[in-house]
Amino acid sequence: MARVFNFGAGPAVLPVEVLQEAQAELLDFKGSGMSIMEHSHRGKEYDAVHAEAIENVRKLLKLTDDYTVLFVQGGASLQFAMVPMNLLGAGQSADYVNSGAWGDKAVKEAKLFGNVNVIANTGKDIPTRMPKNEDLKLTPGAAYVHITSNETIAGSQWKVFPKTEAPLVADMSSDILSRPFDASQFGLIYAGAQKNLGPSGVALVVMRKELAERVGAKTPTMLKYKTYIEENSLYNTPPTFSIYVLALVTRWILKLGPETLYRQNVDKAGKIYQALDSSSFYKGTAVKEFRSDMNITFRLPTEELEELFIKEASKQGMKALKGHRSVGGIRASIYNAFPVAGVDALVAFMKDFEKKNG
Amino acid sequence: MARVFNFGAGPAVLPVEVLQEAQAELLDFKGSGMSIMEHSHRGKEYDAVHAEAIENVRKLLKLTDDYTVLFVQGGASLQFAMVPMNLLGAGQSADYVNSGAWGDKAVKEAKLFGNVNVIANTGKDIPTRMPKNEDLKLTPGAAYVHITSNETIAGSQWKVFPKTEAPLVADMSSDILSRPFDASQFGLIYAGAQKNLGPSGVALVVMRKELAERVGAKTPTMLKYKTYIEENSLYNTPPTFSIYVLALVTRWILKLGPETLYRQNVDKAGKIYQALDSSSFYKGTAVKEFRSDMNITFRLPTEELEELFIKEASKQGMKALKGHRSVGGIRASIYNAFPVAGVDALVAFMKDFEKKNG
Lengths: 358, 358
Known about the structure:
Two copies of one chain form a homodimer. By secondary structure, chain A is of the alpha/beta class. Chain A has helices spanning 16-24, 44-61, 75-87, 101-110, 225-230, 240-256, 258-277, 303-315, 340-357, and strands at 5-6, 67-72, 93-98, 115-121, 145-148, 150-151, 156-157, 168-171, 188-192, 203-208, 283-284, 295-299, 318-319, 330-333.
C-alpha cells in the first residue's frame, strides 16, 4: 500500500496507526463479534469509547470540573448558530472578530439572533492577519466575545489569545490540540473534528457548564447545549464511529505527548516558512507574526506556475496543495497527523521546482 | 472471526460484505493512497461516493425530478425540529399522529414552533398499534401531516399509508428501504441512517423541492432544507464516512434487489411471529394488523424469565434482545441487513427455551 502525503485542509490526514487500528477491528470490535458501527450507543462497548473520548479531551486541555466536553453533529457551521441561540439573550449584544472567511460566516449567522458588534475586521486584509489584541474594541456588557483561532483559508493564526471580561468563545476547528493554551481563559470552544481530531461528522464543544443555563425555553432540544450536558451527548444516537476515531486520535496524541506534538508542529511549519523566506520566487500570504502553523499559504509568480506546481507535486505523491477556491494560490495544511517526512518532501520539491522554473 | 447475531434496534447490524469492503479500502480508497475519511469533500473521489449515495436512493425510491435527496446531520431528532422550522409558517397549524415514543417526541418539538393538532393518539395503547386511516381527524388547511411509519420501541408499523391533501411527512427511520411504497404520496421523508441505511451520523431527507421554499428568512443556514438543496448537501463538510457506508449499503440493496429484500423481510418477521402465535408462553405486544416487520416486541410470563431469556440467548451469540429501557420485555430488531440464519437461530432458541422454562 502506497500512502500519499495529504496536504488537504479538511477532511485531512489521520495518523496511520489510528487507521490501522480502526481497520483491524472494523468487523469485530474487541472480540464482541460486531463493528463499533453496529454497537448500541447505550451498550458497554460504545460507552467505554465515549467515556475515553471525553476523558482524553479533558486531560489534553487540562479541564477543571466546571467545564464540560460535548459532541454535537453539524460541524462548526452549526455552532455558528448554536452559540448565539444559547448564549445571546434578548436585547443583548455579542462581540465578534472577523478575521477571514470563517469569522465572517460566524458573524453572519449570529446576526440572525441578535445584535452583533464587529470589534475588529481583518477579513479582507492582504497580507492576511489577525487583529492585535490591543486593537480590539471590546463592548462593555457584551454577552460574549467570538474569535476564530486559526483561519484555514487565510493561513493566519492567533498567537496570544485576548483576555476578555465577557466569556471568550473560539472556533478552534483548525488548530485545536495542536498547541498548548489555557482553556480556563475561554467560556466556550468548538471545533469540527475533521482537521485535528478525527473524521468529519462530529464537532467537539468544550464549555463552562454555567453558560448553558442562559438558553431560552423555546430553543429546540437538539440545539441546546443543556441537552448535551444533561444526557452526556447521548440524548439521541451520536455519530458513534466519528467519536470512536476521535478517541483513537486523542489517545495517539496523549501517547506522543502534546508538548512533543506542539514542538513538532512548530518545526514542521518553520521548515516551510524558512523555504518561503529564503526565496523570492515564493511569497507567503500571511503577516509573519500571525502565520499559521497549520495552514501555510503562499503564492508563486503566476497562476500558471501555481497550476504546474500543484500538478507536479501531485505526481510526486504530494496531494491537495491547491489553495481554497475562493483565494487560489497554494496551501499546505500540515495538521497534527501530517508526517514530518511530508514536510521535508515538500521543501525539497519547492527548491527543485524553483530551480527549474524560477 | 466470529460474528454474532445483532438484534440491536440501532445502531444496528450492517451487511458483512459492506463492512469487508470498507475494511479493505480503509487506508487506501481506490488506489488514491488515502482513506475515504481523509479525502476532501470537494475532491473527485468523495464526489463520486456522494453522487452514488444520492443516485442509489433515487433509484430505490423511484423518485421523480421534483424530489431531492439530502444528507443532514443530527439524526431524526434534529428533523423533529427542522420539519416545523421549515414547513410550518406563522399562524399555521400542523397535524401530527402520536403513535408511540417517537411520534410523541416529534409532537413535543413541533409545539415549540406553532400550533399542533394531534389527529390521532395511540401512543399509550396496549397492545401497541397505529391508528386506522379512517380514524384520522385531518385538519383542513394544515401545513402538513406528520406520521411515524414504524415505532421502533412499540413494534408497530403503518401498513397502508394515509392519503392526505396536505403534504404527508414521515419519520421512516426504522423501516426506510425495507419495503416498497409510493414516494410520490409524501411531501417529505426523513430517516436516521443507523437502522437500515448505514452507521449513525447522517439522516436521509427526501422531499418535494418546492416545500423548501416555505422557510423563513431568519432560519439558521444549517437548519434550512434550502441550503442543502442549493449546495447538494455540501454547504459545509458532510459526514463523509457515514455517507460512504450509506452508498455501500444502498448499492448492496440494489444488487440484492429491493423486492427480494422486502420478501425476505416479511419472511423473517413471519417466522418469529409464527413462533409467538403458536405459543402461549410468548406474547406479542402489538396488534396483529400493525405488527412491525422490523422490530418484533414480545413478553414472557415474568420479568425474571425475560432476563434469563436475554442472558441465555446472549451466551448463544444472539445479542441485544432486551426491549427498550422504557418498556422492558424482548425486542428482536431484524432490519434489512439482519441475516435469515439469525432469525432461524432465534426461533429455535425460543422453542428450546419454552421447553425448558415453560
